[in-house]
Amino acid sequence: MSEVHAVRRGLLRDRCAAAGSAAALVSRPANVRYLAGGAPPGAVLLLGPGEDVLLCPRAPAGEGAHGRPDEALRIDLLPVPDEDPVVAAAGLAAASGAESLAVEEHDLTVARHRAMGKSAPRLALADLGFTVEQHRIVKDEEEIGCLRIAAEITDQALGELLESILVGRTERHLALELERRLVDHGADGPAFVTSVATGPNSGQVRHRPSDRRVEEGDFLSVRLGASYHGYRCEIGRTFVIGTAPAEWQIELYDLVFAAQRAGREALAPGAAYRDVDRAARHPLESAGHGEGLQPSTGHGVGLEIEEDPQLAPTAMGKLDACVPVTVGPGVHLPGRGGVRIDDTLVVRPEADGGPELLTMTTKELLAL
């Protein structure tokens, strides 16, 4: 991957030079990792005007969850551990002869931006914007391979849970068990906070597990994902506990399943983000569930669990090949519960078989 990271840094350096900046400072952790191979806590990456430098408050500790920095990079340890690395980077850029420095203003506080200006008053600070995030949208096959393994780990953890006794256990206990199983199967850790929702809580978009216990006849909705070498996937499934599902549960499940399938089938290179969202949203709105739907049907995944593109009604742009996204519509009926079905897929052209499904756990409505 060393050559890959060097190429990524070269593309960013060329982009900055074209905009009039001889140097760039990358501070957002996911962007640092994308360009440097590793992002030790607090580290920032300075590109140019001489050699590229990773400034770290402390020495990188092997690979770990933060990755391993590219061996081609120079690593500078800050002499004072609590020194702000962005301020140190501004001083280093100025000392290296740079007249301007592109920075990620969206990642910096006003106080840090001002401190950089005071440290290097002759250095003109420009906004790098979301340039690195835009480069990250299309993944190479090695990145997709990491996502594929993350999805396999996630499927394993979820599959094992489904084979255990669930009635009487709390949402919180089940969520903790899922996260432990992710690590047992080789994950860096969970990609995000695992959500387990039962009964009237099921189907909610951002439900935090509570002490409610699983009961017979409940809907059980689960949303989880593994992080593997920094790359994060997402899966959402809904099941019925104990008995055959009630008629209203079958109808609601079939509706959400149809919406999710429509969203998946809309994924193709050149498809507008908003059109994919519309494909999944329309069946739910037509059935009278338009009010209360989540703002977006899906989003990109990678080094962050929610990154561009956003599959939303007002989103601008079109999908490219090799873009991994989630498609996860859901409906929640207050006081009764609901359904979420969520997959991670990679956009592929029709000639290559269409969208590649990474999360394989069955979407059949199982009674557990």
Q: Extract low-pLDDT stretches.
A: none
Question: What characteristic shape results from the CA principal axes?
Answer: elongated
Strand order of the largest sheet: 4-3-2-1-5-6
What is the rounded Rg? 23 Å
Q: Could you give the order of the helices and strands?
A: HEHEEEHEHEHHHEEEEEEHHEEEEEEE
Question: Kindly, what is the distance between the CA atoms of the first and last residues, rounded to a whole number of angstroms?
Answer: 43 Å
Structural class: alpha+beta
What's the main sheet like?
A: 6 strands, mixed
Strand content: 15-25%
Proportion of residues in helical segments: 25-40%
Task: Tally the beta strands.
Answer: 19
Q: What is the mean predicted local confidence, pLDDT? A: 94
Quickly count the helices. Answer: 9
Summarize, please.
By secondary structure, this protein is an alpha+beta fold. The protein contains nine helices and 19 strands. InterPro entries: Creatin/AminoP/Spt16_N, Creatinase/aminopeptidase-like, Creatinase_N, Pept_M24, Peptidase_M24B.
